Amino acid sequence: MVGPNGHEPVVTQHHPRDRPATAIEEAAYADLTDADLIARARTDPHAFRALHDRYAEPTHRFAARRCGDHETALDVTAETFCRAWRSRHTFADRRAGSAAPWLFGIARHVFT
C-alpha cells in the first residue's frame, strides 16, 4: 500500500498504556517552560510531545536552511528529537528555561 506522499505509510505500534494527552494536560503543558517540560518528560512522555510540538517547525526550518532539502530536513528533525529523547536526562537549563539552544545544538550534531 502506498501512502499519500508516494511512500509506504509509517505504521506505529503503541504500548497499551499509551494514550493521547487530555485537553487539560495539553493546557497545563502550555504554561510550562521548556526546562519544566524536559524535567517532566523523564516520567511523562506527553510532556516531551509538548516540547516536540513547540520546536518541530523551528527545528525543521533550521535544518532546511542548513541543507536546502525538505526531505533531508525532515530526517534531521526526526533524528534531532530521537536524540533529544534519549538524552533528556542530560539537559541542563542554561537559558532561562529555553531548550532551543540545546535542541539546535543536537540538530547541528546530526549534520556531522
TrEMBL record:
Keyword Transcription regulation: yes
UniProt cross-references to Gene3D superfamilies, sorted A to Z: 1.10.1740.10
Keyword Transcription in record: yes
Pfam families from the UniProt entry: Sigma70_r2
Keywords assigned by UniProt, alphabetized: DNA-binding, Sigma factor, Transcription, Transcription regulation
InterPro entries in alphabetical order: RNA_pol_sigma-70-like, RNA_pol_sigma70_r2, RNA_pol_sigma_r2
Residues of the RNA polymerase sigma-70 region domain: 52-111
SUPFAM superfamilies referenced in this protein's UniProt entry, alphabetically: Sigma2 domain of RNA polymerase sigma factors
Record-linked PANTHER family: ECF RNA POLYMERASE SIGMA FACTOR SIGL, RNA POLYMERASE ECF-TYPE SIGMA FACTO
Name of the protein in question: RNA polymerase sigma-70 region 2 domain-containing protein
Record organism: Nostocoides vanveenii
Organism taxonomic ancestry: Bacteria, Bacillati, Actinomycetota, Actinomycetes, Micrococcales
